[in-house]
Design brief:
CATH topology of the domain at 193-306: Serine Threonine Protein Phosphatase 5, Tetratricopeptide repeat
CATH class of the domain at 193-306: Mainly Alpha
Number of helices: 16
Structural class: mainly alpha
Largest sheet: none
Distance between the termini: 67 Å
Shape: elongated
Strand content: under 5%
Length: about 300
């Protein structure tokens, strides 16, 4: 996207917002009335300083300004990113394939974009995870992304986001290093807008990762934090999903509780149906039935050996 072209007529958008809020030129503090009038009449792109002065007076963020400027729509790039964020997991093959195609088409039309290229890599890794039924699918491009992330002294939110979507493709030692740095960065960003949802989802994914590796102690440690964080942030679906992972761990570790755990899992399944999350409900029910079969087979094998 040509940023200069996108910002064309941004002064008219700011004027539209000002008038919509019934504000006069003289109501805008911190900028000369004639300067503001000239910006609006000539439709010039304001300096960065003047843009933020005007936006602050209008009680509006830069992102919301650009959203309004783009006719109350996300940009094409933002739409792709938003679609990726809505992907529930690596099994959503059709969604991943669509995103992969959208990214390729976007870059063919607009040129190379590093952020979208990284998303393309992650999308392909997800599809590989689903195909091979294993987490550790890191390829040379994934290690290139890892090197770029590790080379940065400071991580922005987007760096954290990328790391949170790729960590489970690497061996446990590398994954643990990424997890620890994300958690450290999250502490720095603890007051950032909507960080709670990201934090909860990340912790749940970490717990699931270690659970699948059979590292139940580490998984339980993280998943308990995910449950607590989800509860504090009122993120109900992440809370329920994290509780499910905890029940899976305990089903492995505490045979005497299995009957009670089965009842709790059924309660989760019914709750998700009530919340109109049928797909997630079906998936968790399927996962738990597979877990029961796996443990039954494993215990029968151990009994036979004895």
């Amino acid at each position: 996207m040509n940023n200069k072209h996108f910002l064309k007529h941004i002064s008219k958008t700011l004027q539209k917002i000002r008038k919509g809020k019934q504000l006069k030129l003289t109501d805008i503090q911190g900028i000369n009335k004639s300067t503001l009038a000239n910006l609006e009449s000539s439709d010039r792109i304001p300096s960065l300083e003047n843009f933020f002065i005007i936006a602050n007076n209008l009680d509006i963020t830069a992102n919301e300004t650009f959203f309004i400027h783009n006719h109350y729509q996300l940009t094409e790039k933002e739409q792709i990113i938003n679609s990726f964020k809505k992907v529930p997991n690596s099994t959503a093959t059709e969604q991943l394939l669509q995103i992969k195609n959208d990214i390729k088409q976007y870059m063919t039309k607009n040129g190379f974009d590093q952020y979208l290229d990284d998303l393309l890599l992650i999308t392909e890794c997800y599809m590989e995870i689903n195909s091979r039924e294993t987490f550790m699918v890191a390829n040379p491009k994934a290690y290139e992304l890892l090197d770029r992330l590790n080379a940065k002294k400071i991580w922005t939110y987007q760096d954290m986001y990328m790391a949170s979507k790729i960590f489970f493709c690497f061996p446990p030692e590398t994954a643990e290093e990424l997890i620890n740095r994300i958690l450290s960065s999250l502490f720095t960003y603890r007051d950032f807008e909507n960080i709670g949802r990201f934090h909860c989802t990340f912790l749940q994914n970490c717990g699931h990762y270690f659970y699948e590796l059979g590292q139940y102690r580490r998984a339980k440690e993280i998943i308990l934090e995910a449950i607590d964080t989800s509860n504090k942030n009122s993120i109900i679906i992440t809370y329920i999903s994290s509780k499910f992972i905890l029940l899976e761990i305990e089903y492995h570790e505490i045979p005497s509780k299995r009957e009670k755990i089965e009842e709790e899992v059924q309660f989760i399944v019914e709750t998700l149906k009530y919340l109109q999350r049928a797909n997630l409900s079906t998936q968790l029910e399927k996962d738990f039935q597979e877990l029961k079969k796996k443990i039954k087979k494993q215990e029968a094998k151990e009994l036979k050996i004895k």
